[in-house]
Amino acid sequence: MAGYGWDEYDVRTGGRQSIHDPANSLDLTTEFVKFPGGQHGGSWGVRIKGTPRDNAGSDLKTTIVFYAGMEGLGSLEVAGADVAPGEVGMGLDGDVRIKGQSNELGDFTIDITTGPDTNVHPTHQHPAYQDKPLDKTIVHSVQVPEEALWQTK
Fold first, then answer.
1. Predicted TM-score of the model (pTM)
2. What residues does the Glycosyl hydrolase family 63 N-terminal domain cover (predicted)?
């Protein structure tokens, strides 16, 4: 990694962070914004954007992996999906909502959206696409004892 850090940041409203990754020919920008509402001072939104570096090949393909975990008492589950815990399945089309609950936050949601219409997925010729289509959200859930959280893969 060639560097990372906050370009601007305010704990009350959000910020923008840049991550420079020459090994993968990609620069990532994460933008966080806080908006008012709810019982806990507001909600957070995040946008993740990848920009190919100048030396990137014309066929560069990348995948973002989003990890959500719940430590302590509470729950996380994919809303409206017919996916059993631990089952990967063939993925979910379109926007995905994760419902959660904790003693500290009460009920909450995490929405993963496909983004603007300008987001397009590359065409797929590789046979692995039949098993794990990368234009869908794939969910894999595990429950791990608290003392083994650091070992989760």
1. 0.69
2. 1-153
- Please report the DSSP string for the chain in residue order: --EEEEEEEETTTEEEEEEEEGGGTEEEEEEEEEE--TTTT-EEEEEEEEEE-TT--TT------------SSEEEEETT----TT--TT-B-S-EEEEEEETTTEEEEEEE---STT--PPP--SGGGGTS-TTSB--------GGGGGG--
Question: Cα(84)–Cα(33) distance, rounded to whole angstroms?
Answer: 32
Classify burial at 139, counting beta carbons within 10 Å of its beta carbon; exposed 0-12, middle 13-18, buried 19 or more: buried
User: Which of 81, 113, 115, 117 is CA-nearest to residue 99?
Assistant: 81
* Selection from 96, 63, 102 nearest residue 82 by Cα: 96
